[in-house]
Inverse folding.
């Protein structure tokens, strides 16, 4: 049995428990994370599977919404369940509700995603600590992006998560350009703004390295990302890596504070949400309140 201390009731939630799910998914078969009428999305599939378990609509909150075709290894969501719904996961058996929910949710997802089994995998289900919010409690999100720059590196077995780029790229030039964008900045030039939302973000890591197999892997980490931000950063950096523009051009684009014909998005399929980090349990609520005040 799981002896983890249960979370306090969710504020305003009528005694509901907050549940954290850790999951990964292949974004290829989906039209992104967020529910869209008539389209298959990760959120839509997960909420449909949850409704099969608790026999009512369940809305989940995600750490980071991903675009169509973007993958995740370390996605996090939360949802709220009544005490009876949580305990009922065990169906009266002497089994940890977390273990029972994990097993049953996997089965429900396989039913919902008939034809693409394994496209979404739930790795962990648990009662969340008090104050936890999958979105607003997060300290940072980290993405990876894989590039094979030249036909000699094009491996058909990895084409579904690697950008096949025709021209060779200079890793040193890529890193010189990327370094100028680090810190707390207004990334309007690299975002698709949402009405009423800020485009100020803290870019903590933006770097490129050559992997053992010869491909280039980029790591992009920030407190949060605006819509299309990672793909826009990578797409612009490719010009620098080719030598088409000077490394300082990325910083010039940042200062321009506008989206125009020079704003290019890299393909979505090599992009992977690798990890979402959270503070210690005692700091979750304060972090959520601080972030919510800035974002909203």
């Amino acid at each position: 049995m799981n002896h983890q201390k249960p979370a306090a009731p969710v504020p305003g939630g009528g005694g509901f428990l907050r549940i954290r799910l850790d999951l990964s998914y292949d974004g290829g078969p989906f039209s992104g994370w967020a529910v869209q009428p008539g389209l298959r999305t990760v959120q839509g599939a997960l909420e449909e599977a949850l409704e099969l378990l608790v026999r009512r609509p369940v809305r989940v909150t995600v750490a980071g919404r991903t675009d169509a075709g973007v993958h995740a290894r370390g996605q996090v969501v939360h949802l709220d369940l009544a005490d009876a719904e949580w305990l009922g996961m065990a169906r009266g058996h002497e089994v940890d509700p977390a273990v029972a929910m994990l097993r049953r949710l996997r089965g429900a997802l396989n039913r919902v995603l008939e034809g693409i089994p394994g496209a979404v995998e739930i790795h962990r289900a648990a009662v969340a600590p008090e104050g936890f919010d999958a979105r607003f409690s997060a300290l940072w999100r980290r993405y990876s992006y894989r590039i094979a720059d030249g036909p000699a590196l094009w491996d058909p077995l990895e084409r579904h998560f690697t950008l096949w780029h025709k021209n060779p790229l200079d890793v040193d030039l890529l890193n010189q350009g990327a370094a100028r964008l680090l810190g707390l900045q207004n990334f309007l030039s690299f975002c698709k703004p949402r009405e009423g939302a800020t485009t100020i973000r803290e870019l903590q890591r933006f770097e490129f390295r050559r992997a053992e197999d010869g491909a280039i892997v980029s790591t992009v980490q920030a407190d949060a990302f605006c819509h299309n931000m990672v793909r826009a950063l990578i797409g612009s950096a490719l010009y620098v890596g080719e030598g088409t523009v000077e490394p300082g051009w990325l910083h010039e684009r940042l200062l321009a504070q506008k989206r125009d014909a020079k704003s290019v998005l890299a393909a979505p399929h090599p992009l992977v949400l690798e990890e979402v980090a959270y503070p210690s349990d005692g700091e979750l609520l304060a972090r959520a309140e601080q972030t919510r005040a800035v974002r909203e």
Summary: The first strand starts at residue 17 and ends at 25. Strands lie at 17-25, 61-62, 71-81, 120-127, 140-149, 163-165, 183-186, 200-210, 216-222, 271-277. The radius of gyration is 21 Å.
